[in-house]
Amino acid sequence: MFLDVFEDNLEKNADPLKYDELYNNYKEDLDFIQKSAGTTTQPIIELACGTGRLTIPMAEKGYTMYGVDLHQGMLNLAIQKASASNVHIHFSKQDCTQLDLPIKSPLIFMVANSFQHFLTNQSQSALFKSVKSYLLPNGEFIFDTRNPILKELSVIDEIEETHTNRMNQVVTEKHREVYNHQTQILECTTVQETNINNVISTYKDSISLRYTYPMEIRRLLSEHNFELVAMYGSWKNAPLTKDSESMIIHCRLIL
């Protein structure tokens, strides 16, 4: 249903190796997820699993893992990494709003603010319906999303950075972020100019990110028969405040 929309919003993650290099050492969400998984021996599902940053260490801990992502390049790298770690994970390319899996799970999770790729109320609802179909009774869904801080979103953010890449070429990156208060979508654009033997090569990418407010999250949960277990301001269980950078939502399916 939303496949084309999601695939058109993957420019920022076009290079799986670069993505993996940037985020592979981040562990705070992993600690939270592992504690939530506890001692279950039933399969666990990660949505938008990317290069396997969480799926692989979870499998190394002995959990049976299913990883779903829309980006085949990310999945290919995840499969390579899993093989190198000598763990077996059920990876598949799927639209999270139309999951097709052979199992049900007591725990489904989605991290790295992937929830922001669901740009409309319709797609968010479709996600919850799909998740619900693959949760066991009283199963739990954990996800995160950036907290909308209005004082930051109300201004156009423009940053210019210059660095030298691995080939000793000078690279200038111009970042621009503009928030639409009606759609609640932040449009992020980067123009990269690389000096190659005094010839400038230009590359542009963009991404759209939806910001969802806490009361909207509560409405979604209520509409789809989930109860809120906790809503935190960080993966370290910090209280959620108006200045929190993140919202960590831990909810449970009510049957």
TrEMBL record:
The protein, known as: Class I SAM-dependent methyltransferase
Tree of life domain: Bacteria
Pfam families: Methyltransf_25
Coiled-coil residues: none
Documented EC number(s): 2.1.-.-
UniProtKB keywords: Methyltransferase, Transferase
Span of domain Methyltransferase: 44-139
GO molecular function: methyltransferase activity
Entry's Gene Ontology BP terms: methylation
